[in-house]
Amino acid sequence: MSIEIKNINKTFNKFDALKNVSLTVPDGQLVALLGPSGCGKTTLLRIVAGLEVADSGSILFHGEDATSQHVRDRRVGFVFQHYALFRHLTVFENVAFGLRVRPRKQRPSPTEIKKRVDDLLKLIQLQDLADRYPRQLSGGQRQRVALARALAVEPKVLLLDEPFGALDTKVRKELRRWLRRLHETMHITSVFVTHDQEEAMEVADLVVVMNEGRIEQVGTPDEIYENPVNPFVYQFIGHVNLFHGRLNTGQVRIGELDITLDPHTEVQMAPVVAYVRPHELEISRTSEDVAIAVTVSSIHLLGPMVHLELLPKDSSEVLEAELTKEHYRQLNLQKGDKVFVKPRKMRLFMGGK
Amino acid sequence: MFLKKHTVLPGFHLALGFTILYLSLVVLIPLSTVFLKAATLSWEEFGNAVLAPRVLASYRLTFGASLLAALLNAFFGLLVAWVLVRYSFFGKRIIDAIIDLPFALPTAVAGISLTAIYAGNGWVGQYLEPLGIKVAFTPLGIVVALTFIGLPFVVRTVQPILQDLEMEVEEAAASLGATRWQTFTFVILPNLWPALLTGFALAFARGLGEYGSVVFIAGNMPMVSEIVPLLIITKLEQYDYKGAAAIAVVMLIASFILLLVINILQWWSSRRYS
């Protein structure tokens, strides 16, 4: 079931939460809405679910207009950040809720309900806790129950609002891998909201980066990472070092560095900003033609990787670099050492501030 | 012995000691004198005092009217609390303040006002009379007075619980296909039960003991509209202290048992849900 979002606008008390947003979620894909808090991603999700009404625009499920449909009739499974389980019902009854409230004609028989719920509980690996109440479960277990509850009604699409946001790192990682596997077996069109770029990159087929009520970029995780369309996306997806400079007929001048680009560019003296990821900075002991002299100001060892903070001679803006532990040992770096860095790869955006 | 737990605010023994002393002085000792007084009667005299037809009629009236009023309050109190929590409208704060008036108003004032309004020639009574509905000076009037008196209890107990209910839970129910009515009965109401029962119990207990507002509107006809507290006062005025004490004992025990049952129900339901 594909979802089409067409020209959605939404305003809350003069605050434009969504500005003319259009997006197509292809059938069977797992899509992440990624963005900083307040970018409108949750509002968009709630509008798709029917929990919020857009000021203008339309929502189509599989080509059919669902804009004016009540949430009850949209057949969407919705998973909330804080689980929103029915605390007076057991795990079993929570999952069975959606089946029990069906009109009598469409309601499955008690044995069917029992079977369906048991199957779902097996799927979320909580069949032993069927008689527990939500308060007796851990956060991760609760969220799995919430997911099973949403799946019980066989929704056409599954919508998850920061589903792992309230969980601790370890459980979060486990659950998102589990969600990924679940999606691979069920292939239900799913949209989840997150502000965690790592989560979006790891889980989603397609990532939608949002900012200030607009969609900045839509692409596969790889596309988004390798080819960010603008500085916002570049900065939002992972760490980045900024170099301010000027572009002049195919040459970029950044501080003392001159880098030759495509000589056919005809831009004259325009300000540019160069973006370099920490792992794209090459560190060497000896100076080369294109290198910046820096002092190592701090070293953090994080498992197999080493994070360095480097202080350039001529500016106070700290550079971040990342290298493997092996490389780090080879260089035999110490705090206070003077070394040279060279960007292995950089991306330029015009009109730096 | 009690298991002693380390806390930042110790003083369990002192606090418990004070509580018992306080309860004794204010509640237990006065109430025990009622029992002592009644104990001076022989069993037969006691039986005659508490089982006279006129007394039995007054039990029925007091418990019946209080129960009815408490039920009415449970329903309308829930409605009022719902409106106050869920919607914002002009004058909401004022309505919120009005809810507590029955607590503050001298009950006699309430009784006289209600009588004036519901009497055959009163503002409301004049329209009800042609329909054959008599309110003032009938048991119905007693229910009206007790409903008025008990209104704040349910509103004030349900309001904070309703406020704490997450909207998301209702949204979850709706997304699972529940209708509004199903969402209310299967999701909201179960969470409100303990508070609703507490409010109901308070309103009911208040109704059992209410005197001031009822005597004006009741008409106080023996066998028809005479409540137990009035009967006790009447006995006192006739210097029948023992008879009054005997009826008081029956009321006390009956009220205690009823409240205990409601409390157990409430404890049971809150244990299930929270």
Structure write-up:
The complex is a heterodimer of chains A (353) and B (274). Chain A has 353 residues and is of the alpha+beta class. In chain A, 27% of the residues lie in helices and 35% in strands. Chain A has helices spanning 41-49, 71-74, 91-100, 110-123, 139-152, 169-186, 197-203, 221-226, 231-236, 325-331; strands spanning 3-12, 15-25, 30-34, 56-61, 64-65, 76-79, 157-161, 189-194, 206-211, 214-219, 241-248, 251-254, 257-260, 270-276, 281-284, 292-302, 305-312, 319-324, 338-343, 347-350. In chain A, helix 3 (91-100) crosses helix 4, helix 3 (91-100) runs parallel beside helix 5 and helix 4 (110-123) crosses helix 5. With 274 residues, chain B is mostly helical. Chain B has 13 helices and no strands. Chain B has helices spanning 12-39, 43-51, 53-86, 92-98, 101-104, 107-118, 125-128, 139-164, 167-175, 180-209, 212-218, 228-237, 241-273. In chain B, helix 6 (107-118) runs parallel beside helix 11 (212-218), helix 8 packs across helix 11 and helix 12 (228-237) packs antiparallel against helix 13. Chain B is globular and about 65 Å long. The mean pLDDT of chain B is 89. The chains are: A alpha+beta (353), B mainly alpha (274).
Q: Helices and strands of chain A: which structural class?
A: alpha+beta
Tell the overall outline of chain B.
globular
Shape of chain A: elongated
- Give the distance, in angstroms, between the N- and C-terminal Cα atoms of chain A: 43 Å
Q: Helix- and strand-based class of chain B?
A: mainly alpha
Give the H and E element order of chain A: EEEHEEHEHHHEHEHEEHHEEEEEEEEHEE
Mean of all residue-level pLDDT scores of chain B: 89
Low-confidence stretches of chain B: none
The total beta strand count of chain B reads: 0
Number of helices of chain A: 10
Give me some keywords for this one.
heterodimer; A: 353 residues; alpha+beta; six-stranded mixed beta sheet; five-stranded antiparallel beta sheet; 10 helices; 20 strands; 27% helix; elongated; B: 274 residues; mainly alpha; MetI-like fold; 13 helices; 0% strand
